[in-house]
Design a protein that fits this description.
The complex is a heterodimer of chains A (112) and B (110).
Chain A lengths: L4 E3 L2 E4 L5 E6 L6 E7 L6 E7 L2 E4 L8 E4 L6 E5 L8 E8 L6 E2 L3 E5 L1
Parallel strand pairs in A: 2-11
Antiparallel strand pairs in A: 1-3, 3-8, 4-5, 4-9, 5-6, 7-8, 9-10, 9-11
Chain B lengths: L2 E3 L4 E5 L4 E3 L2 E3 L7 E5 L6 E5 L10 E2 L10 E3 L8 E8 L7 E3 L3 E6 L1
The chains are: A mainly beta (112), B mainly beta (110).
Amino acid sequence: GAGVSQTPSNKVTEKGKYVELRCDPISGHTALYWYRQSLGQGPEFLIYFQGTGAADDSGLPNDRFFAVRPEGSVSTLKIQRTERGDSAVYLCASSSTTGELFFGEGSRLTVL
Amino acid sequence: AQRVTQPEKLLSVFKGAPVELKCNYSYSGSPELFWYVQYSRQRLQLLLRHISRESIKGFTADLNKGETSFHLKKPFAQEEDSAMYYCALPQRGGYNKLIFGAGTRLAVHP
């Protein structure tokens, strides 16, 4: 059916607030990735899920960032105490185990 | 450390001209490399991967291990090729755990 879906498409928040970004992957894709793209840069890996578990969270910049995928499908990226430097486009992508990576349209986060 | 370098932020050509988008990498071992493309108002998508050795939309890319390069080429650019192009390399630990270059914007003028 549809591709990877991300909500919200745009989020403006104030410094210090909490933010959740949601990703709905392609049905049947077991692997789910979060990337962050800052202005003028390529996407940067944050975290990767295989099923429900975080297989690799080595790209999360600090402990303010956390992600979950409780039922092995939808994932939520959570950012606590947002800072201006967190402003970026957050991209979600999914794939079959070793297949092509399919990206969502991204959630643009602006921290004022 | 693994790294992907795309030295040009912008490449501007006329329709019908040849195009070469440069990508250099640092990696110990035999890498797999990818080119991703993002057209205006569309999502990032895979263009081609070196292991499949295919031509997509007239684009090809050859892995040159001696020069550690994976340049993307097309003999005759079309206006619809205008887009952002990203070269990418898997990090250790995951096929789709990618390191991306900063990207090159290709502008094809009529």
